[in-house]
């Protein structure tokens, strides 16, 4: 079967289930064959090897069942960098890029203010490590930041499989920068800050915690996307149970983990420190209110689509 014939077959099969069948076809073909988009156009008559065709047919079936392209290829671009992903971690999304941008600005300002000290940064609920690693890569590629001023990063998550993915991403992305950059990264398995001593303080705390209301998670997972519920459901207590209101009914605002995270982060924040936390557009204002009640000054940053997204606390 030629490349063009298989591309047409993929588009036809995915047209009923995918919002972007043509793009899906191009991504799968490009990944499997190692071709650029230009080569896909120029090599329309290329005969697909049997083993490649077998892989692509299996990929089509999985995509038609709802599995995201990123889980099929095992890779996702985020903030211009290539990240390894698996169903053990959330797929990095463009909405989160505003958190990285703001984190870089905050860290650069703190480096300027304290050039003789080494900053400490915690990425809580790190998942694939995309936030901390995108921040670190950006700093490493900024000529204003000498390599020796790269902050110390702690990447923390309750999921050991997620931490394994984060370690793999760190190894791949930091390799060009030598051993110094790699030495600045520590990985901790912990239920929020439970396994991190209160004696440890951070200048910047970053987090994209679970914040989606419980019933909305149910709806999201119906399409077979296979993202981990643990990283999505914000209505779960620290013991893994469904959170309840004072009247005893289940909560459904996606804020239970955030209610626990804010005071714990406060206890681990260094003087003049900053917390940057991603939330949903539907509960960002409530998160900012929780921050103010905890004694923080807070404001909300909008994402690339103009939606309320990142709550900054200081």
Structure characterization notes:
It is a single chain. The longest helix is centred in the middle third of the chain and has 17 residues, at 97-113. The protein has helices at residues 3-14, 21-33, 37-42, 50-64, 69-73, 97-113, 130-140, 160-174, 178-183, 214-221, 256-267, 284-293; strands at residues 75-78, 81-84, 120-124, 152-157, 185-189, 202-207, 269-278, 298-302, 308-313. The mean pLDDT is 96. The protein contains 12 helices and 9 strands. Strand 8 (298-302) and strand 9 (308-313) form a beta hairpin. The protein is of the alpha/beta class. The radius of gyration is 21 Å and the shape is globular. The chain has a 7-stranded mixed β-sheet, with helices on both faces. The termini are far apart.
Properties at a glance:
314 residues, two-stranded antiparallel ribbon, alpha/beta, 7-stranded mixed sheet, globular, single chain
Radius of gyration: 21 Å
Q: What best-fitting shape do the alpha-carbon axes yield?
A: globular
Oligomer: single chain
> Share of helix among residues?
40-55%
- Estimate what percentage of residues fall within beta strands: 15-25%
Structure summary:
The strands form 2 sheets. Strands 5-4-3-6-7-9-8 form a 7-stranded mixed beta sheet, sandwiched between helices. It has a two-stranded antiparallel ribbon with strand order 1-2.
What order do the helices and strands come in, and which of them pair?
Blueprint lengths: L2 H12 L6 H13 L3 H6 L7 H15 L4 H5 L1 E4 L2 E4 L12 H17 L6 E5 L5 H11 L11 E6 L2 H15 L3 H6 L1 E5 L12 E6 L6 H8 L34 H12 L1 E10 L5 H10 L4 E5 L5 E6 L1
Parallel strand pairs: 3-4, 3-6, 4-5, 6-7
Antiparallel strand pairs: 1-2, 7-9, 8-9
